[in-house]
């Protein structure tokens, strides 16, 4: 770990995905720069991370912080990355193959290139630790839970970002019964009471719940057994479930909602994919609202949730039976407050900022580690 200095902490946040690397660079809480790097051609996560870690305009780097989707049973809060943490993450790779492998590639590359930096990992599963015990269990033999087979929930860093913003946007949403919809290529929603997670759609892995870009979401487990019994290998099934299903599988043309919207008027399969996605979101909102005992606020966030007014409109129309109503002019304008005066619950559009949350957590544990080191030296 770098020794203490009077200047602001310089934090590089790395959010590695299967085809992109999002990064953000902070001086304390001030965002200096951020971008999304596409992994195309010969560009790899390792090359992209190496390039960032040696860029002169970013040096010196005090802290490198990583978004990690799955923390497993043991990693339930942000931690300093050690060799032991890396080994625990490797053991969870099969649970989130689209996410864990690139995250580990980013971690191992950065730790090699900048070994003197403080390395910290933040987990998407941690936010859902407040779910009740019954919601964490699956309806499997009890010994399965002891083996770590349980509902974890994901997108927690995004939900935490929304929770941080709600008090200044809506006291009712912050304190009441709120469903937050993180709608992007990966999609989930979270039912909260008083800004704490009580239920969520993703489960043991990020496969469950809503229809997503390339993932089927809620699926009869018998389909998997049927495929395995009919000469599909485990690898074949994994490819189908993670890379060939969802919006892409239904439309046969794209996993990108923007492309599907462009095609929808003349391409039946694209229109059908969008319709099924909206149905999936509305169905799960109603389910979450039932679980948390009502609905005071509905929040849309992430790529689709923040930018696709048509999807928001179609979802809320399906919730008219419980009193949901958009102000369509506000919806078209991508305003923050989207509900009409007669809506029974508030409807908000809030931009998520996972990178700032990750940077804040990393600075906190870095400062704690420095204070412990100072105390140990003084003793």
Mind explaining what this structure looks like?
The chain is globular and about 60 Å long. It contains 16 helices and eleven strands. With 379 residues, it is of the alpha/beta class. 43% of the residues lie in helices and 17% in strands. The chain folds into two domains: 10-123, ATPase, nucleotide binding domain (Nucleotidyltransferase, domain 5, 2-Layer Sandwich); 164-349, Nucleotidyltransferase, domain 5 (2-Layer Sandwich). Helix 12 (268-292) crosses helix 14 (309-317).
Q: State Rg.
A: 21 Å
- CATH fold call of the largest domain: Nucleotidyltransferase, domain 5
| Helical content band | 40-55%
Shape: globular
Averaging pLDDT over every residue, what do you get? 93
Largest beta sheet: strand ordering: 3-2-1-4-6-5
**How many beta-strand segments?**
11
What profile does the largest beta sheet have? 6 strands, mixed
Q: By helix and strand content, what is the structural category? A: alpha/beta
Low-confidence stretches: 1-5
Which CATH-level-2 architecture of the largest domain?
Answer: 2-Layer Sandwich
Q: List the helices and strands in order.
A: EEEHEEHHEHHHHEEEHHHHHEHHHEH
Strand content: 15-25%
Say which CATH homologous superfamily of the largest domain is assigned: ATPase, nucleotide binding domain
Distance between the termini: 19 Å
